[in-house]
């Protein structure tokens, strides 16, 4: 009985140690990925709270895109509700036109970010460069849509939401560029005891 309890406690301890080690490695990858992003603190805050895997630069790029897409969907929902709400009747004709344009542009951003994430979900070695080019083009287009929205005569609350979206999207574009420079983003084999590495 004592031996079984000792074995159980040892197994539990090693399991927890391994879990904490993996979590620390994922946080290190997120930290090193965010350090040169355009908005590093925002990057670290949004990706540190992300619940998915972060074992490779591909995982981090996908996570950044998911964060950006979530922000775009929330902004799009807010803008559509605002446009259809009673408070939009107090807007000037010019402000209503700018709001209508923003609704359309943010909706386009949602679709562009969705297509980019879809591309990263199905990367293949033989078409990697082409797929990365597609992903970068769509995320760049989403950024342009946000900039165009902000160029209009928009209210401060709309501006705040679209600016937030632009910042997380800029960080996502950085992560995709980083992934494109490094190859497929798959984790490299570890060197150490039991590996066949010659390093």
Can you give a write-up of this model?
With 199 residues, the protein is mainly alpha-helical. It is built from 6 helices and no strands. Helix 4 packs antiparallel against helix 5 and helix 5 runs antiparallel to helix 6. The longest helix is centred in the first third of the chain and has 33 residues. It is globular and about 75 Å long. The chain starts with a helix and ends in a 17-residue tail after the last helix.
Task: Compile the SSE list and pairings.
Elements: H1 2-34, H2 40-48, H3 57-84, H4 93-121, H5 128-151, H6 156-182
Helix pairs in contact: 1-2, 3-4, 3-6, 4-5, 5-6
How many runs of DSSP E, i.e. beta strands?
0
> Looking at the structure, what is the overall shape?
globular
The share of residues in extended strands comes to under 5%
Please count the helical segments. 6
Sheet of most strands: none
**Rounded average pLDDT:** 81
Question: What structural class do the secondary elements suggest?
Answer: mainly alpha
Order of helices and strands: HHHHHH
Distance between the termini: 45 Å
Are there runs of 5+ residues with pLDDT below 50, and where? 12-26, 184-199
Estimated helix fraction: over 70%
- C-alpha Rg (nearest Å): 22 Å
List keywords for this structure.
199 residues; mainly alpha; 6 helices; 0% strand; globular
TL;DR?
It contains six helices and no strands. It has helices spanning 2-34, 40-48, 57-84, 93-121, 128-151, 156-182.
């Amino acid at each position: 009985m004592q031996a079984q309890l000792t074995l159980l406690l040892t197994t539990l301890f090693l399991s927890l140690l391994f879990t904490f080690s993996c979590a620390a490695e994922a946080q290190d990858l997120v930290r090193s990925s965010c350090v040169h992003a355009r908005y590093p603190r925002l990057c670290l805050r949004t990706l540190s709270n992300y619940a998915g895997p972060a074992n490779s630069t591909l995982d981090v790029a996908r996570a950044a895109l998911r964060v950006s897409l979530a922000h775009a969907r929330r902004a799009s929902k807010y803008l559509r509700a605002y446009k259809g709400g009673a408070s939009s009747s107090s807007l000037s004709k010019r402000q209503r036109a700018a709001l209508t344009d923003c609704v359309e542009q943010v909706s386009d951003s949602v679709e562009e970010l969705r297509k980019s994430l879809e591309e990263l979900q199905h990367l293949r070695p033989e078409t990697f460069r082409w797929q990365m080019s597609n992903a970068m083009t769509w995320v760049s287009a989403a950024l342009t849509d946000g900039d165009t929205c902000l160029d209009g005569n928009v209210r401060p609350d709309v501006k705040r939401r679209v600016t937030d979206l632009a910042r997380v999207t800029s960080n996502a574009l950085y992560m995709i560029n980083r992934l494109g420079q490094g190859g497929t983003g798959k984790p490299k084999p570890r060197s150490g005891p039991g590996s066949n590495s010659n390093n």
